[in-house]
Amino acid sequence: MNELVATLAGYSSAWFGPQWGPPVWVFVKTLVLILVITLPLFGCVAYLTLAERKIIGYMQVRIGPNRVGPAGLLQPIADAVKLMFKELIIPAGANKFLFVLAPMLTLMPALAAWAVIPFGPEVVLADVDAGLLYVMAITSMGVYGVIIAGWASNSTMGFALVCVLLVSQSLNLSDIVNGQARGRFAAEGLNFLSWNWLPLLPMFLVYFISAVAETNRAPFDVAEGESEIVAGFHVEYSGMTFAVFFLGEYANMILVSALATIMFLGGWLPPIDAPLLNAIPGFFWLVLKIGFLLFCFLWFRATFPRYRYDQIMRLGWKVFIPLTIVWLVLVAAWMQTPWNPWQ
Amino acid sequence: MTIELLVFYVFAALLAFAGLRVITARNPVHAALFLVLAFFTAAAIWMLLRAEFLAIALVLVYVGAVMVLFLFVVMMLDINLDRLREGFWRYLPLGAAVGVLVVFEMALVVVAKYYASGTLPMPADPGPGYSNTKALGRLLYTDYVYPFELAAVLLLVAIVAAIALTMRRRKDTKYQDPARQAAVKRRDRVRLVSMPAEKKE
Fold first, then answer.
1. Exposure check for chain A: N or C terminus, fewer CB within 10 A?
2. Could you read off the pLDDT of A191-224 as tens digits, one per residue?
3. In B, which residues are within 8 Å of A99 by CB distance?
């Protein structure tokens, strides 16, 4: 593998000269890596929609889509084809450029943030020191698509992550995962008790609930509450522009689940430090944990009625923020005591 | 020409274009969106200078928060462009004076480079393992911890003051107390009355 990379880099230098060869090589390599990450992500999004319809179907004692392909497995493909060939309607009074730009602005941050998500010990596109800050900055741009399209929501997700920073003493996502492999329980082989979810349990809950609100998912989907305001901000979108909004929402769900996995559930680490489990590639554990969190998203949607807008605001500002501040001080004090479990 | 220089020129051209459009765009929403583009491009240029923390903070604070608020205000207020243009000639002298002053100040900065006396030397290349974020964090929370905390408290006081000054409570607002709502038991609301069945006449 390394030889192949070196050979390709050599070709690049031979074709473009010593000055332009290395930058061209870096550019092409990054482009290929981006495709390697985003194309499977689109596949995941497509099958997440199927999983959603199937799981909610079973929870409501019905079968869900079962007509296209064996057990309905080709349903997402049929949906994609349908959306691609539908007519694209642009309202007469709308600004054409902004109207088309808005769905892209929703999808772009959900994809760009994946650049710093580590898939394994050394497997990451950009190993930046300020990785967490980068994710927060990029995802904060997602709100523009919704505003330009007509609506917006706000939440306080990032605050809950400050506690994770405190205990792992790094903004680098790979370092945060590696930090969770240390600790009192990890020394005895019980890795999963050393992950951040247990000592920071309130923060994990705050983060996950805020994440559900951030992605505009039920029970916090006020921006598109279908029983009250038809489809809210994307009511005027059809065909591919609607599909891009849809992709953005689901890609965001996968992103916040991946972040929760890295911050609180130990990323690619196996739950117990046993040779048999260590033999399984870390990527498998990461996908398993992300899958579990995504299942929770669907579970919530099938279980809870929608929150009223003022109730969401009360939950965010009057419950979560005070809770987070108190817990932050507690954790900081806890780390100074001899019972510090993060040593 | 190196690749960094090429990238810099691309971003600089974009930044100049976006900045120009902010003041020339007729639609205020477009102007605000071009300002977003300008912030983002400026962040990219800072990234080229290896100031990654500043770049990310610029995007996080200005693009992610301040401009969202801006856009909200611009969209919510129904801005009448004709009324905005009314005062153009009246404000022109003041605006032109401020503009000339800014150009003069920028010229001073550019010219100062040629009289090397007051300028700082270029910092040495810190090497590959250097993290701007970490260095900044260490400085802020050790050497400058008191000024930093003071600034934080000042901002907090400002937030509280802004809300306290602008909040008007309506007397007839109905308010729900969620704690009381959750504490309600069935017997507080429902009374079961046993009645003998009534006979039809």
1. N
2. 777 787 877 888 888 888 888 887 777 777 766 6
3. none
Of A23, A147, A311, the CB nearest to B71: A147
Contact A284, A119 (CB under 8 A): no
Quickly count: other Cβ atoms within 10 Å of residue A22's Cβ. 15
CB A204 within 8 A of CB A161: no
> Is the Cβ pair A128, B33 closer than 8 Å?
no
> Which DSSP state fits A316?
I
Distance from CA of A314 to the nearest CA of B (A): 10
Query: Please, which pLDDT band fits residue A151 given cuts at 50, 70 and 90?
Result: very low
In the predicted structure, residue A56 carries a pLDDT above the cut 70: yes
Per-residue pLDDT reduced to its tens digit, A66-113 = 888 888 889 888 888 888 888 887 777 777 788 888 888 888 888 888
- Between A119 and A95, name the one with better pLDDT: A119
**A84: Cβ contacts below 8 Å, ≥ 6 apart:** A239, A240, A243
Residue of B nearest to A149 (CA): B75
Pairwise CA distance, residues B53 & A134, whole Å: 9
CA B116 to CA B118: how far, in whole Å? Answer: 6
Neighbour-count burial for A200-224, b at 16+ CB within 10 Å, e otherwise: bebbbebbbbbbbbbbbbbbbbbbb
CA-nearest residue to A133 within chain B is B56
Q: Is the pTM of this model over 0.90?
A: no
Query: Around Cβ B142, how many Cβ atoms within 10 Å?
Result: 9
Task: Measure the CA–CA gap between B32 and B181, rounded to whole angstroms.
Answer: 43
Q: Which of A19, A97, A129, A233 has the highest number of chain B CBs within 10 A, making it the mutation to test binding with B?
A: A129
Chain B residue with minimum CA distance to A97: B30
Q: At what angle do helices A321-336 and A201-214 cross, to 10 degrees?
A: 150
Task: Write out chain B's pLDDT in tens, 201 residues.
Answer: 677 888 899 999 999 999 999 988 888 888 888 999 999 999 999 988 888 888 888 888 888 888 888 888 887 776 666 776 777 788 889 989 999 999 999 888 888 777 665 556 667 777 766 777 888 888 888 999 999 999 999 999 999 999 999 888 777 777 778 788 888 888 888 888 888 888 776
Contact B67, B39 (CB under 8 A): yes
* Cα of B64 to nearest chain A Cα, Å: 5
Between chain A and chain B, how many beta carbons pairs sit less than 8 Å apart? 57
